[in-house]
Fold:
Amino acid sequence: MPQSSTNINKRLRSLETHLAEEHPDNPVLAKAVHSFRKLDHVAQDIGLLDKNESYATYVTWWPMIAVLGTFSAGKSTFINSYLNLHLQRTGNQAVDDKFTVICYSRHDEIKTLPGVALDADPRFPFFQISRSIAEISETGPQRIDAYIQLKTCPSEKIRGKILIDSPGFDADSQRNSTLRLTQHIIDLSDLVLVFFDARHPEPGAMKDTLEYLVSGTINRADSNKFLYILNQMDVTAKEDNPEEVVSAWQRSLSQAGLLAGKFYRIYNPDAATPIEDPQIRERYEKKRIEDMEEINARMQQIEVERSYRIAGMLEQTAETIENQVINKLTNMLQTWKKRVFLIDGILFSLLLILSVVALSMTDSWNWVKTFIENIAATETSSLVTLAVLAGVIGYIHFTVRSKVANSIIKKLPAEFGHDHNACKQYTQAFIKSTSGLRPMFLNKPAGWNSANQRILAQVKNEANDYIQSLNDQFTNPSGRKLEAEQAPLTEPTAEVAAETDSHTEPAKETEAKQ
Structure:
């Protein structure tokens, strides 16, 4: 077994064990890791994943809250207030140029750990992110510590959760890297708090950044996880015009396509400008308390949402592979084959015409007759000549195959935009399906067969079972009292794991027969 495959399996086993120990009352999470392994087998057969990759590393197994926004929006001040600790530096300018992952520690002191602590641990959202950083850094290869760091603190509010503070977006030297890592965080988070500075209702130079943060949320299936927060609203009390401030932001953000959604209006009383008028102060404070209660409630319930999200991702990933990915790859293969056959036809027709013209002009038709007779008599020189001709024809054909495949691959980045991971997966799968060892008459993508279809069906059924199990934990529609608690889901057995692994061999045999 390759070392890379051994490493990822070891990490997944460690993750299963850790989840089972940390959440003995919620066995769905440990079971879900095993279902992700099944998805990995299918994706690796198709070419979507390498042997050292797993869909289990595309999710964060601890509830995750992302705090995003422009510099001076009060993100760090909000985090410090929430944790009741002076953890993050604060200021009116960008004071931190790294993504800070914050998690609980039993130690009384705050500790700052390097980015490698996150890069090597599959439980965290930046597992193996160093490979992407090497690809996207505008200033050449950079150490991962230049982009991310881990901070631990003893605040009980963060126990069992992960909180991420984003850097300011005015660091042009790392701008593209910052935006791409931001997209990675958005995809993984259970809750995204998008902060805006109420003192600057017209974004101006930050317009493109805000469009990036906002426009990508509009058509997402999980758009309800985004909370838009107007922070430092106390500065508007002098004119007593909070509604005008909200309207100004709504006008600005509507240009990025955000036409709906609720804005929360908050400020930090300890850092706020004193509001002299008691009536205005009471109105502002009442609104702040109401909105903070809603925000805190959403932050507290993400653990339940996280379990449903992971189960839902299993089903969604299986559905995406079966329908969207396979259909896309099939269409790409059809386009590829048509172009290859067309170019082959043109080139070989030209070669045939040139050969006929050359033979006619040199009156060498007798040579063709003699050549055929020598081949029939297995004359060595003629057989060598035939092999050379076949090699030339094969070289032309496989060169055409490669060139056409590359031309199709080059169009994928523009098609997928910021979704670099999807672009990478389609590229890998398409390269596998168009490899020189694979016959062109196969209509289905590599790895797509009845055995892998059955595995995806199993994963979808398991995802539904997990959701029902979660429903049994958190709901009781009938209102009846249960005589005994429902038996928990059992841990994955060695027999089940062996059955999953056995699917990979029939999958290859089925593909060979297609």
Residues 483-487, 489-514 have pLDDT under 50 and may be disordered. The CA atoms of residues 65 and 397 lie 52 Å apart.
